[in-house]
Each structure stands twice: as C-alpha cells, then as structure tokens.
Amino acid sequence: MQSSRLFPRFLTTQSQQGYLGRIWPALAARSVWLVGTGLFGLFAIVLAAIQFSTPDLAGNDGYYHIKLAQVMGQQGLRPVFTWLPLTILSADAFYDHHFLYHVLLIPFTFGDLRLGAKWASVILPAAAFLAGWWLLRSRRVPFAAIWSLGFVAVSEAFLYRMSMPRVQSASLLMLFLILYAAFSRRYRWLAGLGFLYVWLYDAFPLIVLVVGAYTAARWLFERQFDVRPLAYAGLGVGLGLVINPYFPDNLVFIYHHLAPKLTGATATSVGNEWYPYRTWTLVENSGVALGAFLAGVLALGLSNRRMNTSTATLFFISVLFGAMLFKSRRFVEYFPAFALLFCAAAWQPILQEWLQLGSWRKWAIPAILTALLLPAVWFNVGQAQASLQKSKPYQQYAAASAWLQANTPAGSRVFQTDWDDFTRLYFYNTHNTYTLGLDPTYMQLDDPALYDLWVNITRGKVDNPAQTISQTFGSEYIITDLKHTAFLDVAEADPHLEELYRDEYAVILRVTQGGWSME
User: Fold this and answer.
1) Is 425 found in the same domain as 286?
2) Which tops the pLDDT comparison, 292 or 3?
3) What separation in angstroms does the CA of 16 have from each of 1, 9, 13?
4) 506 φ, ψ to 5°?
5) Conformational region of residue 397, where left means phi above 0, alpha means psi within -120 to 50, and beta covers everything else
6) CB crowding 167-182: b at 16 or more within 10 Å, else e
7) Under 8 Å between Cβ of 215 and 227
8) Domain enclosing residue 374, as ranges
9) What pLDDT, on a 0 to 100 scale, did the predictor assign at position 2?
C-alpha cells in the first residue's frame, strides 16, 4: 500500500494505514466545511463593512422589496396588491416578478425592516460568493479559496450592486448553481433550477444564455452536441411559467416589462441602470474585472493544453455579459464575477504545471495571488463604501408618510411627482395608494395618455392642476419633494390647492373643492 503521499512516514504500519484510510474522507470533508465556513464568514464581514458604513439603504427598490416581504409574511404569500391601481400592477393584474426573492426576505422582516434589508444584503451575496468558490473547487482549480476572494476585489460597482437589497445576488447564486449542475453533468437538476429561477426573478432567460454557452462549448471542444441541458432547462422554465401563482398575468407582465427595454421601443426614462456606463467610468469602477478577463485570455496563449469545456463556457459567458454590460450598466452585477471565474479556470493548467516543478511553489503561488488581490480588495471595498454613503437618507418621506397615514382616509390615492418616490412611500405607509411606481413604463403601458398628462403636471406645464389631479387621477392629496420647483410654483398659484404639511424633504398639498365635483 502506498502511504508516503497520503500519510506521514511514521504512520506506515498496515493497521495505521487502515485506520487513516477509514477516517481520511471524514477529515477531508471536515476541512472543506471549515474552509467554506471561514470563507462565508470572511465574505459576510467584508459585505457588512460595506453595508453598515451608512444607515441608509443602497438604491431605491430595496425599500419596496423588504416591505412587500413583510406584507407577505403578515397577509399570505399572495397578498392583494392595491397600491398602484393606475398601472399594469393594479390589483386585478398584479404579478410579483420577484416572488421567490420576497419569500427569502421574509425571515429578515421580524424586527427593524431597514436593518433586516441590510442583513439580507450581507447574507445573500456572501452565499453567492461561497457558491462561486464551490464551483471553482469542483473544477479542481488550484487555490480556489484564494481565487474566490476576488469577488470582493474585481469591481467597486459590482460590490455596490451586490449590496443593494435587490434580487441580483440571489440571481448570481442561481447562475452559479446552474453552471455547477451543467459542469457536473447533473442535467436533471437544470429543470428544477429553471423552475425556481422563474419564480425568483424575471431575468430567468439568462439560464438559456448560460446553458447555451455550455452546450456550445461541449460541441466545439468535445465534438458532442448534447441538447439535454437546454431541454431540461427549457422544461423547467416552461413549468415555472405555467405552474405559477400568477399565471397567466405573469406572461402578460413579462412581455410588457421586458420588450420595451430590450427593443428600445420606449423613450421613457426608466432609471440609470438600463443605460450604459461611459467607457472610462467602466474602467474606473471595474478595472480589475477587465484586467482579470485579459489575464485569462493571456493564460490561454501561455498554456500548452487545449482549452477545456468549462473554461470555454466561462469565456463565452464572460464575453456575452461583457457585451451586455456595454449596453446596460445593470449587467455589472454579472460580468465581473464571470470574468474572475474565467481567469481562474484559464490559469488552472499553468498553475498545475508550476506546482509540479517544486514544493516551494505551493506557498509562493498563493502568496503572490493574495498579494495581487489584497490591494484591490482594500480599494474596491473603500470605493463601494463611498458609493453607498451617497445614498438618499432613509428618513426621507418618513415623517410625511406618517402624516398621511394619520390624516387621510384609508386607501385614498396620493398623487406623487416622482415615480421612484413610491418605494419609500410604500415602505413607510401602506395606508394610502399611489399613482405610479417601480417603473414609469408601468403606467405608460396601461394608459399612455394618462402617463403623458402626469409628466406634464409634474413638470409644471399644466396650469391650475387641482381639478385634473382630482378628477382624472382620483387623488385628493399630493406629495412632492422640494426640487420640483416648477410644479410648486404652479401649485402655489392654484386657488384649489392648499399646503398642509412641509418638512426638509417633502410638501403635502390637498385639493379643495371648487365649482366641480371631487368624485
């Protein structure tokens, strides 16, 4: 029996070898658990350092997500959604396109919702990064644990997006699991993962991109055109769409939500995330990710081995997400992660050859990798903290919402002058309903003329707007921030609008009855 490679030389008797042969798998499994636990803890510490560098939440949508999760926990997983009646998310057509994500958030709603949203934005991306480590380890990439530290080094914008209380971290986790199932030839898993992805997030078409890249790589590098991965993934997606608590409204919503953005069919401003970065801005916030991709390409040229299927798959996915990133900045939540995985996979054969040349390389190579990563970690974490600290104060609209809840009838509609104010208003006040929110196209798709009228009113282009707000929008109360000066000037000149409340963030107005009906 060969012992010197597995056990110390002084443990060479047959009985000793037999004993260690029995316990070795258990010891190895324990070491994997220890490394995994340590990495998860390290990821969580770094993400918490970013998250709790400010009391505010990153972005706007997180306020809506954590509040809806609380409502689902209190009223059932499919509550009646009454808060946006003038949009395609009205009560009779509502589709929760982040359903499973909201279910995952429910455990974080028992207590302070803001802190719950923050902890969810630590735990979920940490789990995604851990899945990335597991994916590298399953491919036998040397020093997979050190490579995985790159997730907090590749891009400041990536870290910022991962720190949002939004679904993208869970989506990245899902893509890693999908790749693991494909690489390990567990194709039947793809049906279940595809089903869950549909329930998680309406970005589920990404599964076709990932599995399609794997299928193409097998065809090119193994000369095997196997459609089973695509078939199982497609089956899961199809079942997830049909066996769905919101069927068939989910199909209508998906079409309305995605088609205008993918085709550029709308000129409506839909939020910065749908527009591309300036080229140099991308270099500044994701330079390490771009460098990792180029380093991976360099490794392909240096290696004496033919590129394998998994490396080719990660290369294709990185290229695809890179192209999508040049179209829309929101894909910065995917490209840096896959650029890192591709780089690690591309250097795998070279590192394996170097490790065979001498024992000193076993500590020199990880030392060099760590030395390269740590400065990038320090820089990008600091930049992500700075970006998060620019978030709007979480107290915005808190006092104004409390006033509305205390002084207006239940269910009364509030006319707001910014569509993205809805998330904070909803977070603090589910007592009222609102004109529009989450995405301006949701009203535009439901009633284009009504949306255009809303835009003109909020820009101060409609004189004496009280009657229109009351009769056309069904709103007696109006909330606006102090930056809408054109609207405030028009409102001040309207004899049928009176100011009821003002603080440092907001003004609340009320329509007074004139020579027309308030009904």
Assistant:
1) no
2) 292
3) 12, 11, 5
4) -145, 160
5) left
6) bbbbbbbbbbbbbbbb
7) yes
8) 14-51+95-388
9) 42
Which pTM was predicted? 0.90
Neighbours of 76 (CB within 10 A): 9
Transcribe 23-43 into DSSP letters: HHHHHHHHHHHHHHHHHHHHH
Within 8 A by CB and 6+ apart from 50, the residues are 159, 160, 163, 381, 384, 385, 388
List pLDDT tens digits, range 343-379. Answer: 999 999 999 888 887 777 788 888 999 999 999 999 9
- Burial environment of residue 20 by CB neighbours within 10 A (0 to 12, 13 to 18, 19 or more): middle
Total domains present in the chain: 2
- Using CA atoms, how far residue 62 sits from 59, 113, 165, 254, in Å, is 7, 10, 5, 21
Q: Do 372 and 492 fall into the same domain?
A: no
Residues with Cβ within 8 Å of residue 187, at least 6 apart in sequence:
181, 228, 229, 232
- Structure token digits, residue 132: 């990335």
- Alpha-carbon radius of gyration of the chain: 27
Is residue 376 within 8 A of residue 153, CB to CB? The reply is: yes
pLDDT (average), residues 453-470: 94
DSSP tag of 52 = T
- What percentage of the chain reaches a pLDDT higher than 90? 75
21-35, 333-347, 472-486, range with the lowest pLDDT: 21-35
Q: Which of 339, 367, 388 is where one domain is finished? A: 388
Of 361, 388, 415, the residue that ends a domain is 388
Residue 209 clears pLDDT 70, i.e. is over it: yes
